[in-house]
Amino acid sequence: MEIQQLKSLQTFLENPLQIAVIPHQNPDGDALGSCLAWAAFLTQKGHTVSVVSPNDYPDFLNWMPGQENIIRHTETTEKAETIIKEANLIFTLDFNDLVRIDELATAVAESTAPKIMIDHHQNPKNYADLTISYPNIGSTCELVYHLINNWQPTAIDSAIATCLYTGIMTDTGSFRFPTTTATTHRAIAHLMDCGAPHSNIHQNIHDSYTFDRVRLLGMGLTHLTQLDDIPAVYLSLSQEELNNCNYQKGDTEGFVNYGLRLKGIQLAVIMIENQKEGKIKMSFRSKGSFPAHTFAETFFKGGGHKNAAGGVSWDNLEETKDRLVSAIQHWKDRFE
Question: How many distinct structural domains can be found in the chain?
Fold first, then answer.
């Protein structure tokens, strides 16, 4: 954490402001956790703060402290855009390109308020007046932790600690991804000391599956396919299967990781059909040196982190599978 960046951030926040804090579309634990924690901290500092989400988030995150006050653009569009328009300062957290906030991007781009990016993804775009970007840090929540801890450690109460713990835990795969460092664990220990109920957080995230969600996972795993002589697997879910299991937002979260649990597998991909939008949503997870983000960007208009990325296909599910297999075979020399 550069001291000069912290000083620049503090300069923006010298006087009480109306502030909007925005996560990416389809916010996950890291996006929500960082936004809620940062909003709570700014509120302590005397600012008027609103968290404005592009859309809704999964039920397994609806217990997080402060989430009941989140404004969803898809549900209360006029209110959300009024908040953006009247804001004196806008924070964008856990994304670095305005395309990640869908229709909310227009309101943010048109706002004359200064914009501050706090993020850990690679290749940040140049839309912010202050960019705080650390791709080597495993989560935006860990980055926010360091900002608050370096500024005012005593501000980290149990609510802030809970939100930050949740985001760090989810974005590091419960501390097993390579981006987890000794510094990460020291931050987690401090958050536990500040009141983060670690056992309850794990239960809320991982032990809250509905019966339909477990059925959906089973359907996905029946389609698990390994490529011949290549350490890669893929699975898929059709719109019909989603419908049959009463799919809810977030139900497929983490499904792709099951592929990486197979011994020797270095790349796992999940394809999820969305007939309403006419596309296939894709998630990529890798181990070792295989660059999931570059693979997703090269073949499926995506991107993300080296070992965790997303992409999209506008072909049907079967055509997407064929394209995926062809792409993996084309890159078979990239595997260790």
Answer: 2
